[in-house]
Structure formats: structure tokens, C-alpha cells
Amino acid sequence: MGRNTDRIDEVSKAIIENTSKDIAKVLDALHLEFENLSFLINNLSNNDKDRVIAMAINKLLEELKSNITMEKYHEIARDIDEITDYYMSKKEEFDVVIEEGDYIANELLFKVIGYNNQQLDLPIDVSCIRKYCLSSKIKTEQVYDVLLWIVIRYVTIQKCVSY
Asked: What is the pTM of this model?
């Protein structure tokens, strides 16, 4: 009987330890801030910001192009939304940034993977996104937030695909 009690105690401790580690990860994720990413480019010139973001978007789209299908996208879409929710910002009207960024990211991705016989060749120039994809709802000061949001979305999609 003592051996069984020891085993039960071990399992009980393991449950507590594993849950504690998982909760710590969740708490860390709750402290993710969009501003922690935007500060990385804030001091760059607009030209350098464009180059950095274009490089990230094109790198991620190139990787996703061969790793995701629409079926797989639909399987992970909910996870993508839940994960990106952690990057919400305290900035005013950030919901517009999210809505716009999600829409553009999806449209570009779907065209790159050839959904509905659409086609978009890489590399994509950020000036094209700015000129043809952004709606009038986006204020000038929100443009780079939208572009960064697209990067966050693609990183999330990539992680969900590989998970």
C-alpha cells in the first residue's frame, strides 16, 4: 500500500508542477505587447522601416508558400486569431489596425498560395501594400502598425503550421 501511495503522490506533484509551468507560460504570454515590437523600428527612417518590413513579409510568405494549403489554414485559423489577440495594443483605435492587418495578410497569403486561381509573385513591395491595400480607415500614423501586424500574423501562421 505504501508503494501505491508514493505513486499517487508523485502523480499529484507532477500534475501541480506541469500545470504551474503551463500557467507561467500563459502569464508570460499575457504580457506580450505590440509596443515591444513597434519600438524596434520606431527610430528607423521610413525607407528603412519599409525595407525591414518588406524583408520580413517576403521571407515569411516565401516559407508559407510551400508549407500551407487552404485546408490547413482553415484548421488553424481559430488558433491564429487567439494567438494574435495577445498582441492587442492599448493604442486608440487599434481594432482598425487588427482588422485591416488581418484582411491584408490573408489576401496576400491566399494569392501567394494560389487560392481560387489567384496569383501573386514575390517579392512584395511595401509601397504596393500601402498604395493598393490599405483602406481609408487607416490613418497615416497607423500604417506601420498595420504592416507590423501583418508580420505578426505570418509568424503566427508559420508557428501554427509547424506546431
From this structure: 0.84
Residue 86 C-alpha cell reads as 495577445
Cβ atoms of 152 and 84 closer than 8 Å = yes
> From first to last of its 163 residues, what are the pLDDT tens digits of the chain?
577 888 888 888 888 888 888 888 776 766 677 877 888 898 999 999 999 999 999 999 999 999 999 999 999 999 999 888 888 777 778 899 999 999 999 999 999 998 888 888 889 999 989 888 888 899 999 999 999 999 999 999 999 998 8
* Contact residues for 129 (Cβ-Cβ < 8 A; gap 6+): 104, 108, 147, 150
DSSP H or E segment with residue 6: helix 2-30
